[in-house]
Amino acid sequence: MSPARFWVRRLLRIVPAYWLALTVVTYAMHSDTIGSSWRSIIVDYGFAQIYYPLHFFSGIGQAWSLCTEMSFYLFLPLYAALIGMRRRSPAGQLRREVLALGVFVAIGVGFKDWVLNYHCAPHCFTSHVPYMISWLPSFLDLFALGMFLAVMSAWYTQHRSEPTWIAHPAMPWASWACAAIVYVAVTRVGNPIAGALSPTSYLVSQELYGLFAFFLLLPAVFGPQDHGLIRRLLSAWPVAALGVVSYGVYLWHKAWFDQVYGWFGAKGWASLLSYVALTLLVLVLSTASASASYFVVERPLLRLKDGFGSRRRPLRATPTPVPTEPPAPAPSLTSP
Q1: 122 has a pLDDT exceeding 90
Q2: 46, 98, 293, 326 — which has fewest CB within 10 A?
Q3: Residues 313, 178: Cα–Cα separation, whole Å
């Protein structure tokens, strides 16, 4: 796939839903603001909040991670071209790609350490938000975990074999047990929103978040997907359907939380039962908005993705062979 086709497909998947949610959330629901100047509009609609400190929390608040993701998509074709130069044997190419992912991990950890300990120390979590911590180099270690799953999945698919331990019935349970342990560990590190993290604790928490996602997804990437309770749960149609509109849930959930919070106030979340009920209400409203966005806007536009950048060669008329009679046998010299 050419870089142009890749970028067009990614833009069709991400931009229309984001622009729709940003417009409705800002101008109809009034959950967020983006400012009235043309610069503010261009920054927020152009996925550039993370590069302007004054705009970091404008628009859809959680869209900072979407800005980082978009920069990753810009970088990915360049990385693919570099990693594919002078291709070696399949095993050699695999070693090269795994080594490159290890370099990504080192860059991600090193960049975060530099920003937190040298660029904005000692007031990273008190005086201002270190917006540079949201730039692509800071998340290369987390992207490397997902890319490692993709590389190994492609390797096993190409060779039509997986290690025996992957198909073991206990593998999904062991993987999710590791995810649970990591989740408990990260909850004990501290709360970055409350400003309780030191730079070191922030680094540790980010790596634990990545490991949690890694172990959570491991059974869905490898092994027989029709065996075992966990894999059947992940492939069940309600989970699969929620996965289809999960991008929209990500875009809409905070706005609906603000709306529900405004309806019921802080006291509405006081008891455990009311907290669960209101959380489910936010999930239902977010899923409904995401589904409407997907079927009305996203899905029709996604049908255009195969029409961009595809070069169709004109069909050449193939001449129809004319049946010919077999040649008459040559006269025999021995014939009378």
Answers
A1: no
A2: 326
A3: 51
